[in-house]
Structure formats: structure tokens, C-alpha cells
Specification:
- This protein has eleven helices and 26 strands.
- By secondary structure, it is of the alpha+beta class.
- Helix content is 20%, strand content 32%.
Length: 557
Amino acid sequence: MTEIQIEFDVPAEMRDGTVLRADVYRPGGAGPWPVLLSRMPYGKQTPLMSIVFDAPAAARRGFMVVIQDTRGRFASEGEWDPWTHEESDGYDTVRWAAALPGSNGSVGMVGGSYFGHTQWMAALSKPPELKAIAPLITWSDPDDGLWTRGGAIELGVTVPWSLLQGADTLMRRHGTDPATLVSSLGGLVQDIDGLSHGGYGELPAGRFPAFARHDLPELGYERSRREPEWARFCTVSGRHDEVDLPTFQLSGWYDIFSQGTLDNFTAMRRADRSATLVMGPWSHISWRHVLGDVNFGFAAHSDFMGMRGRVHDMQLDWFQRTIGDGEPLEPDTGKVLLFVMGVNQWREETEWPLSRAVDKDFHLRADGRLTPEPPAVAEQAEEFVYDPMDPVPTTGGALLMTDEFRPGPLDQRDVEAREDVLVFTTEPLAEDTEVTGRVKAILFAATDGPSTDWVARLCDVDEHGISRNVTDGIVRVREATPGDPAEHVVDLWSTSIVFRAGHRIRVQITSSNFPRWDRNLNTGEPEDTATTARTARQQIFHDPTRPSRIILPVIPA
């Protein structure tokens, strides 16, 4: 089956009369066919779609594909109000798509990131025709990776994302006034281009000035604080048991929503739903085999998958079984496919997290040591000065930022040479050590101000002494007692990596990672008004009563 018919800008009327438009791909022949639906704000013909879903391939496989512009975007009517209408519009669109000529009445949903979230919202609204969803690279709790992380604003992704969406907003607003349109788009582009050259540093971070300059929708972070009830439109966490559908979920260890994807998967498994998981060595928009400074081997590429074929085809095989004519999934089935970095191999599992993982403490020690043994006697606290006007620059990690900031594992030598970054390192490992699961750091720390941040980063130091980041996290302390040591937990999210024999495990401790996360100005003022900063004197304790450490989920040999 090779013939495909495409119908452009097919109208769908929502319950309030707003018309949304979709492109419809139909296989050759009379049908009927199961429907694969995607609802996205980026333009239904954007090349970005091909990263997460191959519409022509799906049509050739016998699926009718419907790709819709969400409300207020591109060909669809209405006002762009991010997240607000996706639940109700999702319900109405599923029902409309199921009734299209050629449809067999069964609908699955596909897509990633924002248009992964539109699937969750549609599923929560329970349209009867929706039978399966595949929300890829998608968050669970917006305060754990979308808007904020550990209390700090996800400045690196939210600012450019919001400004980029502003282009269509300005074109719709000034479409009949070419001179104003050119001027407004020029100003927007100037702000986007200037982010890495100081624009990210505009204050206040919690009410970012560029949005007001262009009259664009505010960050979800701001609105959710002002209207807590509105946050439900952006949140899946805590609602998974309302979704009685099989799910296919995919992410990468350096994806901005890696932990959200894992959390969505584990929640669906806890609810006794069929759930499939794929985790590669990828970022949010690159599913290739090279990321950052590391070549993970061609088997890591999403078009190869260790001789399993294209991940797009794996997804279509799954849909063939859930809404097509393939062998139906049993309620308790669902595969887990993990890429283990370091050894650079795919491994099939049946669960996440892995029950055989054993949490092992590695303690921060004097002289920059990192040891399994805790301190037996008092050791002098480590100190550094954190200056928000000279923050630690973002260097690799789970990023989706302007192009100057590459995601993935990068050489950390410049970061580790700074005086405001503490470094703790093991001796060379005698044998391979696999860490697969969620990583966290326990820090006993003090600051001389009313508020500050603590950042922890796990690194792999190779036999040549090159340190590369594996995973990291941040926690914002909003009410610190100056000079008083307190215990803080830093969630570094999850990973899967083998630290090879001869390599060393390293932990960085600091107070900033900018502009990925907004800077704590150390004054205690709210982020939406704070514009003045002070330096902070920081202390990290490691003694028998205050054993700062990182906890690694080690897989027994």
C-alpha cells in the first residue's frame, strides 16, 4: 500500500464554535482505517513532527493520520492560551476524528513534548473512541522540569520557547498592518538572538521583561502561582489512574522531560495499565547516536535501535496491536527498553525502576575525595562564595535552550576550574560499576543569607582525566537561617550508565547553573520582583553527624 491522499485544513468545530483545522492523510483504498491523531501548536506541517512521528509511513501502514493545529495557532481559530483548552478541545477533536470519512471509529494519539501533553489531556477527558496514546518526551509535573525544577525557574527552556511561539501570535495580531508586523517581528527576533548575549539575565526572572515588551502570554510558572486551580490544565501527575488506556512512552537520558516520562510510566504501571517504555541516550530533539562530546555507537540511533529497526516502526507496530488489526495487548504487558551508557548497549527489562538496584552512598570527604566510607572523625567544612552576577555557566546536561547551549555530556574542565565549584572524586574504579535508576544527593549546607540554591552534578571521569556530566539537579532554599547548617535533598533525576573500570566517579557541588536555571539572588525576595543581588558565603559539611553524600542506584555485578 503506497498511495496516500492528503486533505489540507479540514475544519473541526469545537463546542464553543471555534474552528480548528487539520491535515488528514488517508491510505489508498476504501478503508475503513484506525486513526492516529496529533494536536500541536508548532504548525501541522513543521519538520519537527518527523522527529517523533512519521505520518507518511503510518498512512502506508494503513492508518488514517490527522494532524491538527491547536487553538489559536497557525490555521486554527481562537486565541493562543497555552494549555488551557487542550482537555476540552482534545475531547471534541477525538470524537470528530473518529467520525471522519474512512475512519473505523478507533483513535490513537501520537506526538511529543507539548503535543505529548495534549494526549494526556484528551485521555483525561475520556472520549469513548480514544483507545491508546503515545506521549513521548513529555512532562508529568510542570514543577519538575517544565516551569521549575527544585523550586528554580527553568529559564533556559521556558524563555526561548515562549518567545518563539510569539512569532505566530504577532503575525495574527498585525497581519493587516505590514509595517507594524515587520517592526514587531524584528524586535522579537532581536530578543531571541540576544538571549545568550545577556538577554537571559534580564530581571526579574519570574516576570520576564521580554514577554511584556511583546505582549505575549506569561510563563505558566507565573500564572500557576496566581491561579493555582489553572495548573490542572498542565498537570498529569496524580491523575494517571483516571486514564484507562495503554501507553507507549519514550525519552532520553538528556531530555528535559526524562524524569517526567519515567514518572508517567511508573504511575501507569502502578495503576495496572499496559505501559511500554523506551529510554535512549538522547536529548529532547536529537535521537541520533552522537550527543554532546560522546558517540554512543550507531546502534544508539533511533533509526537502528540495536538492529530492532526504526523507533517509528516500533511505535507503529505497537499501534497495530492497540487500535489496528494486530494481536491485542494483554493488560499486564509492556516492554521496557533502556540504553545503558558507558557500555553503549540496549537492554530489555520488564520494569522501571529496577528492583535489583541497590542504593549505595558515596560520601563527600576532605581533600576532594568521594568514598563509600563515611567520615569517622570531624572534617573541616568546604567553603565557597556564590556571586549571582558571576554564575556557573550551563555546560551540557538535559537542555533545550538556544543553540549556543549544547545538550548532552560535555567536557567539564572549565566548570571544575572555578572557585565556586566544589569537586569530589573517587579513586579509579577497580571494576565496572553500573548506576541505573534515580540519583539524589544529601547535602548538609549553610549560607549566610536568607535564601540560596544548591546544585549537584554527577560526572564520569575517563582514563584521560576528562570529566563529563551525567545528570544533575537543583534545590532552592527559600527560607534559610543564616549560618545555620541544614539538610537538603537534591534530586538529580535518573540515568543508566556503566562507570568503566579505571574511570572515576565525580560529584560537583555549587549554587548555580545559569541560564538553564534562574539565579537565586540570595536576598529572599520573590522571583517576580527581585532585581538586586548579594553574594553568599556557602558551606558544605561532611563529618560523622552531617554526612553529605550522593546516593547511587548500583546494579550488582
